[in-house]
Amino acid sequence: MSFLTMLQVMGNGMIKSIGIFLWTLLLSLPLGLLIAVIRQKKLPVITQIIKIYISLMRGTPLMLQLLVVFFGPFYLFKIRLSDGYRFIAVLIAFVLNYAAYFAEIYRSGIESMPIGQYEAATVLGYSKTQTFLKIILPQVIKRIFPALTNEIITLVKDTSLAFSIAYVEMFTVAKQIAAKETTMLPFVIAGVFYYVFNFLVAFVSERIEKKMDYYR
Amino acid sequence: MKKIWALLLAAILAFSFAGCGTEKETKQDTEDNTKTESETTEFKVGFDAEYPPYGYMDDDGSYTGFDLELAAAVCDYWGWEIKYVPIDWDSKDNELTSGMIDCIWSGFTINGREDDYTWSDPYVENSQVVVVAEDSGIDDLSGLAGKTVAVQADSAALSLLQDEEGQKELADTFGDLREFGDYNTAFAELMAGTVDAVAMDIGVAKYQLQSRGEGYKMLDEYLNEEQYGIGFRKGDTELRDSVQEAIDSLKKDGTFDQLAEKYDISDLVISE
Amino acid sequence: MNILNIEHISKSFDDLCVLKDISFSVSEGEIVSIIGPSGSGKSTLLRCATMLEYVDKGTISYMGQPMCRMGSDGKPVYVKGREEKEMRSRYGLVFQNFNLFPHFSVLKNIMDAPVKVQKRSTEEVRKQAYELLEKMGLKDKADAYPCQLSGGQQQRVSIARALAMQPKILFFDEPTSALDPELTIEILKVIRQLAAEKMTMVIVTHEMNFAKEVSHKMIFMDKGVIVEETTPEELFRSDNERTKRFLGQYALR
After folding, report:
1. pLDDT > 90: what percent of chain B?
2. Chain A to chain C, count of Cβ pairs less than 8 Å apart?
């Protein structure tokens, strides 16, 4: 296999990896926020459910969660699933897992906000929703941004777990080429791919952080 | 610039979902067909894509190999649509049981797994062999005493070396029996000297020795004799019989032998 | 008509009774100072008056309209929805720690609530905001962010922010306690200026001389009750033991 073909084939795999990455971010960032906000309401039963959910997601490996989401419907309910479900299952597992981590990060940010910000907003007549969206959330995002970036970079590398349910992303392609060519070169390319991708993520994140740098 | 980025991201988002959308459509087609035709209009072949020469990625990035081409010929025979599903080898049973694949066709050793699957007739005479570095001074199995031997996790070689009725007695003489994930790692360790020998299927050994060139040798003494078959879901005899009928016919018309020659395993296949 | 009427309010946190049967009123243009040792309930009183805390008992009304009245079960019933929103725009509160929104510019801090909460026209609010900034001596700081300002400047912005809502009454909760003496002077100057404009104000403060000079009425609170409520002159001549002891501490300094 020529080096160029190798790059091209792995590039196709990379698009799949980026697909997992983008969809997971797009869905888990809002879901995590929603979970964190609901938890703030301190409703006993729901808080307990959320706590169990977060503890399960953090306490078990993502690979196991992938297997459960993918094979669970069959083993539990005897539902026959189509091959298209592979990607859906990857997304469900990744989104649920990452939303749990994001929810905790949001919570840390929300709880670090001084009570005075809420009080000032209340006295000025802002509704609860306005207070959260206009006053609290922008400041929370600034506070939690470094932690979010960390988690997002981990996500890039975690995409390779998708192959445990036979979703062939970039790293799997690399392994397959390596087996065929009996060489380590594809792993070097994979490393470069991941590094460049994460470099971009870090670059974008730094730009955003700079943009929020105008206040303390 | 921002717009270009946004477009690019949107395209990737759409692309990743479009891919699974079309798969869904074909699935729906097959579901419609199941009502009128047999269940195997689409024949989903589960295989390990890191297992040349039986199943691997070709020079152009598509999947190929002796097993896959044979499977494709079977599909041609029946007019089925073939679907290659490269699986995580550790999940092969889940994939098969849940119906995500119809068979495991991947240089799959029958011996030791006789009761776990509904098997086709054996089609490859396989042996487990041991590969060592050329200058290691190891010439036969007894030379492995006290040495570190590597073997792929969940492989036939491993179960053979752990089986009381197999080669456990020999394995007990090893200094250490170490499991690894893929052959690249194993050969890298062999080269580095962190392991002294690697046990594997003879077909795989030949491919590895050929593509890696000098520096390794295969011991003349084999660990065992065993056979490859195609593993179907337990009880799925109908599908097994259809596939078997096609293979028998391919053996008669010479296609089978041609494929064996193409992949340089003529001395291993069972043509009769 | 009284701007604010507070009648028989009580407030406890768990078992701790912080306000016991407090009543007082503020008429239009009147300046009332509330003094007393820490823990006497002064801040809680302001927080109850501004719906940051809800009272356990009693009634509060602004300009004759109840913000909270006694329900048939003896529990206070608060206004809700649009009425609540309308009620909140009748008063403003200036915090000890300013509580400016750090991610908003000075101008946006002042303009956002009038535009987004009161739905007034941006143009009108902008004009008013610049007038307020001018009055506070901060006209060149409109585009600055709170973190770029001194404490005194921040507190002046927060006063402007409260005034932009066009309240009928302005509460100050120890507005100078977080400031150096020289910055304190800036704030006191602004409050004097507002007094000259007949702004109705209730000020919780430890600045005794200032309170004496600017207020029409002074309230001395201790342990959750109003000990004395009278003119500054009367208060500083009071025979009450507790009052004398409290004011004495300041005279010594």
Report:
1. 57
2. 58
Residue C207 contacts residue C188 (beta carbons within 8 Å): yes
The predicted structure's pLDDT at residue A190 = 94
Give the nearest chain B residue to A20 (CA atoms): B16
Partners of C10 in beta bridges: C57
Adjacent-strand bridge partners of C224: none
For A127, nearest residue in chain C (alpha carbons) = C117
Each residue of C51-77: pLDDT tens digit?
Answer: 999 999 999 999 999 999 988 888 899
The nearest alpha carbon in chain A to C95 belongs to A120
User: Which of A123, A126, A216 is closest, CB to CB, to C52?
Assistant: A123
Q: Which residues of B touch A67 (CB under 8 A)?
A: 91, 94
Q: What is the DSSP string of B211-269?
A: HH-TTEEE-SS-SEEEEEEEEE-TT-HHHHHHHHHHHHHHHHTTHHHHHHHHTT-TTTB
Q: List CB contacts of A50: < 8 A, sequence separation 6 or more.
A: A35, A38, A39, A103
| pLDDT of A35 | 96
- Token representation of residue C127: 């004009």
Contact B268, B202 (CB under 8 A): yes
Measured distance CA(B135)–CA(B216) in Å, rounded: 8
Q: How far is the C-alpha of A36 from the C-alpha of B186, rounded, in Å?
A: 46
Alpha carbon C121 to chain centroid, angstroms: 26
Query: Which chains touch C (3+ CB pairs under 8 A)?
Result: A
C6-41 pLDDT, tens digit per residue, is 999 999 998 899 999 999 999 999 999 999 998 899
**pLDDT at B20 > cutoff 90:** no
Question: Given this model, what pLDDT does residue B97 score?
Answer: 92
Q: What is the ipTM of this complex?
A: 0.93
pTM over 0.80: yes
CB A49 within 8 A of CB A99: no
Q: Which of residues 12-41 of A touch B (CB under 8 A)?
A: 12, 15-16, 18-20, 22-23, 26
pLDDT tens digit string along B42-59?
Answer: 999 999 998 889 999 998
Cβ–Cβ < 8 Å for A165, A174: no
d(CA A6, CA A188): 12
Residue C181, both tokens: 């003496």
